[in-house]
Amino acid sequence: MPGFGDPVARLLIVGLAPAAHGGNRTGRVFTGDASGDFLFAAMHAVGLANQPTGRRADDGLALRDAYIAAAVRCAPPANKPTPLERDTCAPYLARELAALSAVKVLVPLGAFGWEAAFRAIADTTGHDARPRPRFGHGAVARVGPYAVIGSYHPSQQNTFTGRLTQPMLVEVLGRAQELADAAEDADQASM
User: Which of 15, 18, 117, 163 is 20 to 30 A distant from 73 in Cα terms?
Assistant: First the structure.
């Protein structure tokens, strides 16, 4: 399933995979499930989405300065992609990143998204972060032309337990916007 959002986005949010009862059912990643509700509410709070929910692909949700893609394109059993699924889908994320020429910051959701983001950057630019920066909520790394800021995934196992709260996700998304602004300012200063 391809991603969606603003084609001139400066932020690329990288999820795990379409949920069986969410994106896989609705045809739009993070749409129609609790994880998406959590993510879109945070995006709306910082101005990256025009509304706080996404229930159907035709519900009017529009992203501003953000694009959302999944590391894996199908709904894997138990949300645990196999190495074959991961490797088969990796080129799709790399092509999306390459097509999004305005992206300055990647926001991977969860450790799987973190790894997928770094693989996509390496496949797209040849810049490979080795050793790989350690994933953590709010962790920031720079590789090639990009900043990467990690967030826990907005899965129910993280949101119901309080491992990820709305303020935590809002903070990461706000920080991602600041990093994009700083990168854009640096680009303009070098011209």
Answer: 163
Cα radius of gyration rounded to whole Å, the chain: 15
Instruction: Report d(CA 97, CA 69) in Å as an integer.
Output: 9
Q: Collapse the DSSP code of 129 into the 3-class scheme (helix H, G, I; strand E, B; otherwise coil) and give the result.
A: coil
**DSSP 8-state secondary structure symbol assigned to residue 69:** E
* pLDDT confidence of residue 101: 94
Domain carrying residue 65: 4-189
CATH of the domain at 153: 3.40.470.10
C-alpha 10/C-alpha 183 separation (Å) is 10
How does pLDDT run across 36-57, given as a tens digit for each residue? Answer: 899 999 999 999 999 998 888 8
Into how many domains does the chain fold?
1
Give ∠ CA 24-21-10 in degrees, rounded to 5.
55
Q: What are phi and psi of 107, to 5 degrees?
A: -120, 90
pLDDT (tens digit, 9 = 90+) per residue, 99-157? 999 999 999 999 989 999 999 999 999 888 888 899 999 999 999 999 999 999 999 89
